[in-house]
Specification:
Blueprint (H helix, E strand, L loop, with lengths): L8 E5 L5 H10 L5 E5 L11 H17 L4 E4 L2 H14 L5 E4 L2 H4 L9 E6 L1 H6 L1 H9 L4 E6 L3 H6 L4 H12 L7 E4 L8 H7 L5 E2 L2 H15 L14 E4 L5 H11 L4 E4 L6
Parallel strand pairs: 1-2, 1-3, 2-9, 3-4, 5-6, 5-7, 7-8, 9-10
Helix pairs in contact: 1-10, 2-3
Bound molecules: D-glutamic acid.
């Protein structure tokens, strides 16, 4: 369908979580043009059923596909762990599909740990996708996972960091004696500093953004789809499925500046 290195990359999440993956993409691949979709109307995905997540994410992926994207990045663990197979099947051989779990789960960084903790939404934890993937590559690892359902919605709604911190502490008190922690929800990437402080730097925070984007860059390059030169006048577009929430807009401005477009797209469900 006529994709080229100049085509945009489509990236999606339930809300602001994927923005940090998009930001890392801008850092590692500054010439890339991208279209972001935050399903703000249906956030939090972590509380939704598998069927719901599958149905909605297919709608968003199809929407981005029609925008002639050269690749799709599933910047949401809840979607990747519940709907990746479906999205891959639908777009097989049509477009490159990336997600935030697979590149991390196979990363050799796990060779240096004995026991790791995973915090994620209930939808991700119940799927057991992450643990299964990691264990497939690293049998020696002891993996402890806990659902942290309150976190994504309060991050999305821009709660004061002090209030968020006391909730974080309550959860992390249940996750002691670990070598490393996986923030298996892209929203939690906004809390890296707080989580590092909680463990006084003694627990390693796996750098999900860097690992994921490195893989995207390598694959695009391998497929001769990496944009090697700057393209001008191409500003990123940020779609939301509800009138743009104040905090979403604020985060976009902080991370990407003023040269961006905001649009709302409402799906017609039958
Ligand atoms: N950011 C999403 C994830 O990585 C989900 C947050 C939510 O909508 O519950 O799982």
């Amino acid at each position: 369908m006529g994709i080229s290195p100049l085509s945009p990359i489509g990236i999606f999440d339930s809300g602001i979580g994927g923005l940090l993956i998009a930001k890392e993409m801008k850092i590692q691949m500054p010439n890339e043009d991208f279209i972001y979709f935050g399903d703000t109307k249906n956030m939090p995905y972590g509380e939704k059923s598998k069927e719901f997540i599958r149905g909605n994410s297919i709608n968003i992926a199809s929407f981005l596909y029609k925008k002639k994207c050269k690749a799709l990045v599933i910047a949401c663990n809840s979607i990747a762990s519940n709907a990746l197979d479906l999205i891959q099947k639908k777009f097989h051989r049509k477009i490159l599909i990336f997600n935030v779990i697979d590149p991390v789960a196979k990363n050799t960084i796990f060779l240096s740990y004995k026991r790791i903790g995973i915090i994620a939404t209930p939808a991700t934890i119940h799927s057991n996708y992450y643990t299964k993937k990691i264990k497939k590559h690293y049998h020696h690892l002891d993996v402890v996972q806990i659902p942290t359902p309150l976190l994504a919605p309060i991050i999305e709604n821009g709660w004061e960091i002090k209030k968020i911190n006391s909730i974080v502490k309550n959860y992390l008190n249940r996750l002691r004696s670990i070598d490393a922690i996986l923030l298996a929800c892209t929203h939690y990437l906004f809390l890296k500093k707080e989580i590092e402080n909680f463990y006084h730097g003694e627990v390693h925070l796996i750098d999900i953004q860097k690992i994921v984007v490195k893989e995207i860059k390598e694959k695009l390059s391998e497929k001769k789809l990496l944009c090697l030169y700057p393209t001008y006048n191409k500003f990123p577009i940020f779609y939301t499925s509800s009138p743009i929430p104040f905090f979403f807009k604020k985060k976009v401005r902080i991370l990407f500046g003023k040269k961006v477009f905001f649009k709302t797209h409402i799906f017609n469900y039958v």
